[in-house]
Design a protein that fits this description.
Helices cover about 25% and strands about 25% of the residues. By secondary structure, the protein is of the alpha+beta class. The strands form 3 sheets. Strands 1-2-3-5-6-8-7 form a 7-stranded mixed sheet. It has a 4-stranded mixed sheet with strand order 11-10-12-13, with helices on one face. The chain starts with a strand and ends with a helix.
């Protein structure tokens, strides 16, 4: 029997949040992630993890307040479902997703949705896994797809029109990001130092409000790279990866 913990205002301080577990260089990112979560908990944000030391969790909240450029009504949006390392292959991902589905039904939601890609991309769920549970493709932009599991006949969520642009006016390398991911803060500092040392123009645009998230010019879960006005990827990059991209 697997034991799970849901983070709340009473236990968020002492519980780890899985992602950047045990790595001191990411502690600032972990702190900012927890601050971000504290603001979300009042809106029905759920972070459920295995009661063990590892990267095993699901994170979701109502689509109306989810920090993604997706609109809809009465749906839950899954930000992330991650089971890593020795915990894979034990049915934990299934249990986490089944919990989220059951939770959404108990709240009388119309369904639950998540972002995937036609071919696996970093920090996104496995499309085949969700299809197995009855999720269907309800919208798409380039290689990205919005999957939804419907509980009734109400309209499914869809990408906002602004997200379909996948372009910006700025020609310089530009990164949109949020504090939803604890890895972000360290990479922002590393990239800033690299760009300054090499006299490279690098722009960071922090999405720090629901309004900004809903109006992002691209698909974004927590990070988006642009170069010469074109969308590059959702991969969180370090200085070495940045150098390769240039």
């Amino acid at each position: 029997m697997n034991n799970y913990i849901n983070l709340d205002m009473d236990n968020i301080e002492e519980e780890h949040i899985c992602c950047a577990i045990g790595d001191p260089k990411h502690q600032d990112g972990v702190d900012k992630k927890k601050d971000w979560m504290r603001e979300r908990l009042a809106n029905g944000h759920v972070f459920r993890k295995l009661d063990a030391r590892g990267k095993i969790f699901i994170e979701y909240e109502p689509i109306e307040t989810a920090w993604v450029p997706i609109s809809g009504e009465n749906y839950e949006y899954i930000y992330c479902l991650w089971v890593a390392g020795r915990f894979k292959g034990n049915g934990i991902a299934r249990e986490l997703l089944e919990y989220a589905i059951s939770d959404a039904k108990e709240k009388n939601m119309s369904g639950i949705c998540t972002l995937v890609a036609k071919k696996k991309k970093p920090f996104l769920g496995e499309k085949k896994f969700f299809l197995h549970f009855g999720f269907e493709v309800v919208d798409s932009i380039q290689d990205y797809e919005l999957l939804a599991l419907k509980f009734d006949d109400n309209d499914t969520p869809k990408f906002n029109d602004n997200a379909r642009l996948m372009k910006i006016d700025d020609e310089d390398f530009t990164i949109y990001y949020t504090n939803q991911c604890p890895y972000v803060e360290y990479e922002i500092r590393e990239l800033t130092d690299y760009a300054e040392s090499n006299n490279i123009k690098l722009n960071f645009i922090k999405i720090d409000s629901l309004e900004k998230a809903k109006n992002a010019p691209c698909i974004i879960n927590n990070w988006a790279n642009f170069y010469r006005g074109e969308y590059v990827s959702n991969r969180i990059i370090n200085a070495k990866a940045f150098e390769k991209l240039l």
